[in-house]
């Protein structure tokens, strides 16, 4: 049942930027090409500076990874906006060869009154963009990247492809979860006395509640992001969506806490031999009044239990291997850093 946790940790390590060996190799080679910053700043490089009024869900203000569900849609939208800004700027610079400070980098462009501020070099991603046209002060870069008067950016509130990525991630995670939990449930179901007993019921409840929690938190994040399109909450639909988002979030977190205690207690009772008693061994939940206890297993019952254990092992290992395979395929589609 706990096999899924190992795979989640492996996936986290593979996707985490802290574990990118190629990035560590380039940490010294790209120092001169990095982006400068103003000195004497004590702020952290990455920090959440929003307040309670800036977000639709309070979970967006919490940094632990378990709260990433509440930030995924907004992060995808913000990342898409930043990407499009740089993409359009590079395409425009390629067409007109527009420099930041003059075409020759000698100040022949607009005068920059902030020459005393540290200049920032762009990382060249196009061979035909002159390097001298990519340097300027911090303030001039802000002016350079600002849209002209009267021009509005047409950025969508929903990042393109975000629901496709969400669908793939959800299906992969659910397949891993139910592949491992289903294997444990299969062992408990087919071990004499067969059918639903204390052990198999604990596995089933854990899987069902986990899936229910995932569904509630996912719906909560979608409704919260939808309400964020109307920050003033003027329309009735926005207020209703936000209210349902809060209800889903509170209920999902309550079920998650209950499920945590359930799975811990199920494991403790399993290994403390608490289930080794008449009520649990007779599978009362599945057989009702016809429940019985197997004292001596027959050859057929032993063969059935053996086949169930083998099938459960194959199911769990196949789910784990498929999860790693899909994760590897998705990693191959990510752009790699230049060597």
UniProtKB/TrEMBL annotation:
The chain crosses the membrane at residues 174-191, 203-227, 247-272, 309-331. The keyword Membrane applies. It comes from the Eukaryota. The keyword Signal applies. Residues 1-21 form the signal peptide. Keywords: Membrane, Signal, Transmembrane, Transmembrane helix. This is Membrane-associated protein. It comes from Suillus discolor.
């Amino acid at each position: 049942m706990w096999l899924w946790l190992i795979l989640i940790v492996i996936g986290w390590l593979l996707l985490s930027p802290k574990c990118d060996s190629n990035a560590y190799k380039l940490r010294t080679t790209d120092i001169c090409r990095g982006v400068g910053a103003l000195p004497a700043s004590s702020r952290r490089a990455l920090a959440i500076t929003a307040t309670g009024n800036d977000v639709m869900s309070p979970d967006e203000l919490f940094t632990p990874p378990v709260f990433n569900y509440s930030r995924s849609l907004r992060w995808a939208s913000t990342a898409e906006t930043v990407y499009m800004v740089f993409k359009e700027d590079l395409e425009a610079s390629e067409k007109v060869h527009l420099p930041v400070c003059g075409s020759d980098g000698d100040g022949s462009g607009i005068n920059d009154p902030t020459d005393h501020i540290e200049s920032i070099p762009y990382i060249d991603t196009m061979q035909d963009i002159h390097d001298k046209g990519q340097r300027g002060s911090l303030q001039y870069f802000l002016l350079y990247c600002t849209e002209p008067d009267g021009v509005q950016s047409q950025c969508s509130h929903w990042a393109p492809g975000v629901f496709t990525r969400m669908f793939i991630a959800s299906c992969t995670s659910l397949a891993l979860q139910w592949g491992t939990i289903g294997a444990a449930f299969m062992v408990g179901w087919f071990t004499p006395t067969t059918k639903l007993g204390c052990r198999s019921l604990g596995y089933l409840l854990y899987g069902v509640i986990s899936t229910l929690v995932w569904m509630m938190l996912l719906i909560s994040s979608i409704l919260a992001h939808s309400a964020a399109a109307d920050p003033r909450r003027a329309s009735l639909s926005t207020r209703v969506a936000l209210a349902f988002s809060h209800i889903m979030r509170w209920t999902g977190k309550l079920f998650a806490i209950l499920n945590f205690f359930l799975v811990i207690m199920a494991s403790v009772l399993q290994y403390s031999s608490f289930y080794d008693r008449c009520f649990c061994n007779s599978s009362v939940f599945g057989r009702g009044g016809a429940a019985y206890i197997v004292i001596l297993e027959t050859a057929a019952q032993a063969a059935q239990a053996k086949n169930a254990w083998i099938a459960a092992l194959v199911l769990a290992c196949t789910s784990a291997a498929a999860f790693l395979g899909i994760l590897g395929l998705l990693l191959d589609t990510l752009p790699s850093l230049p060597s």
